[in-house]
# Entry
Amino acid sequence: MPKPANPRFDLQDFLPYLLTQAAEAASQGFQQIYRDRYGMTRTQWRVMANLGKFGAMTARDICEISHIEKTKVSRAVAALERAAMLQRSPSEHDRRAEILSLTENGLAAFADLGERAVDYDLALRRSLRGKDFAELNRVLRAIMSQRLAAMPPEG
Amino acid sequence: MPKPANPRFDLQDFLPYLLTQAAEAASQGFQQIYRDRYGMTRTQWRVMANLGKFGAMTARDICEISHIEKTKVSRAVAALERAAMLQRSPSEHDRRAEILSLTENGLAAFADLGERAVDYDLALRRSLRGKDFAELNRVLRAIMSQRLAAMPPEG
DNA sequence: GAATTATAGTTGCACTCGCAACTAAGTCAA
DNA sequence: TTGACTTAGTTGCGAGTGCAACTATAATTC
# Structure
C-alpha cells in the first residue's frame, strides 16, 4: 500500500485538531460531574452558568453572551425548566420575550457545580505545572474571537 | 432577580470552556472546506487524514491512533467507502479484521485537503502573530494526554 | 478439542445538533 | 392603520453521536 501522500501535512500539528482534542480531554471529567449529578448536558450547564453568573435575562441575551445557537438555548431552557431549575417570567416591555432566571433548585445546583468547576480547573492547571497559563489564555481568547469564515490562505 | 451566586466561579476563565470555544472557532472554517467540497464529516476527515498520512491499516488501528470511538470509525469508514474514497481488503492473519486504504479518489481528496489544511493552519497561526506557539502546542499536547477521569480536587 | 473469554467490527436506539420553517409580537413608514 | 419587514422563541426533520447489544472470529484454558 502507498505510504506518504502529503508530506507537508501532519495532523498532529494541525491547530484545529490539537485544540479539539485538548478541549475534549479537558472537558470530559467535568462533563461527568454535571451529567451524573444533575443529568445536564453541556449546553444546559452553560446556560445555567450564564444565568448564575450574570443573573436573570432573556434567551436572546444568553445567545449573545455565549454564542450558542438560539435553538440550542431554547431546548436547554425547556429542559432546565422541566427539571425545575429555571423559571420564566414575561417581559414587561416585549411580550415575545421571557425573562429567565434560576429557581432555588437551580441556584443550589449552580453553587455546587460552580465550586466543583473551580476545583476542577485548579486541579487541571496544577497538573500542567510549569506552563505559561497567562499566555495560553491569551492565545485561546484570540482564537475564540476569530470568526474564521473559510479564511483564505493569506489570512 | 438575584445577581451573584458564586463569586469564585467565572466561566470566562474556565479552561474546558476556553478550549472548547477556541477549538470550535479554529475548526469552523476548515470544516466548511471538507464539508462543502467533499460532503465529509469531521470524523470522516480524521479517518482519511490518518489513512493518508500513515497508510493502510485496520479500523482498530485507527481507533488506537486517533482515540475515536470504534462505532464512529465504523460509520465513517462505511461512508467513505460509499463515496468511493476508501476500500477494504481482508486481513490474511485475522478474518475478523479488514485492511483499510484510500482509493485513488480518496488519495486525491486527501492531497487536496492536506494542502488546504497546511494553508489554513498557517493562516490561523499567522493571524495570531506574536504568540508563543511552541508553548501553546506543548500545553495542548499535555492536556490531550490527560485522561481526566473525574479528577479529584487534589489532582 | 470443547467451553470460555476476548476481540474486530456492525447495528439499534435514544438523544443532541444544525438548519430551515414556522408563530407571534414588535417596528417602521406611507 | 394597513402592509412590509424584523425579531423572540419554538418545532420538524435529517444527520451525527454514545452506549449497549450483537455477530463472527480468535485466543485461552481445562
In short: Strands of chain A lie at 86-90, 98-102.
